Amino acid sequence: MTQYQAEPGHLGPHDIVLLADPARGRRIRIARRGATLLSFEVPVGEASVDIADGYRDAGELDTRPSSRFAIMVPFANRIADARYVFDGEPHDLQPGVEGASRAARHGFVRGVEFTLEALAADAQSARVRFSTQAIRPGVHPGYPYAIDLSVSYTLDAEGLTLEAVMRNVGDHAAPCFFGWHPYFRVGDEPIESWELAIPAATVVRTDADYIPLAGDAARASIAEQPALDFRHLQAIGARELNHAFADLKPDADGRARTHLRNPASGLGIALWQRSGVMLAFTADTVTRDVRRSVALEPMESWSDAFNRSDCAAAIRLEPGAERRYVCGVEIHSP
Fold this sequence. Notes:
mainly beta
């Protein structure tokens, strides 16, 4: 049996790791900075294709354009006006900032230099585990909580699995949840021709700033939103997506799979999760390569979850408690 491979490497000044499955021709690079996946090469015919539209060089890893493959903790996507209330206490993530400059997005760890805890390979898999204790009281305005975070990637015959473990090491309950912000490419053809399927019963309605509407107004039946109904695989077309999809229907194995496929080559992926919501974004407003990839973002809870009573139980982490979130990518080769 062919041995998987796991080894350290570099991207300019940045430490990275390389995980490889030689038998299937798959190769992944992940940076310590942000525990950020940089590339995911898979074979298509005689060629190797990078399905990850990640940071291209060390400079982009420093500046983080469009938060590509960001690990999002302790919150995913947006918090309205960068303010929230938790256990009756108001918090301001941007004290002293007013007006249009106020924005809280994608958590606190995108630029953190994670510790490399473990790197190993054997006949079953290649795997790496990163950790950080960067989320502490006094470090991030408006977040007086202590969270230990570990992020593990495992490459095996099924594909890539990501597991995040969040532990509250403080003395008080904390709001905390996980999200991932990957961008995928399944070919050089325009994304309009790519096919997408999301097994959702509900689409999340938002305001112009992509903040979910209050209460039940945020939930719309997918059956009543035909332009956003991707319950069956279909071409993306000219649609501009920046929508979260909820009430995901799992397959028999408990995984809810969002599919992205290039019909021209037959290359496809399935991004799976066991819970939470899926946010699909067609990259219409990114800083480079507009509509050249699709972000498929598994999130443990909603955008602005810190301000939603219907998300309160899902994001609450008691002192000493930990919560795990697992998702992954399966490869469907032509």
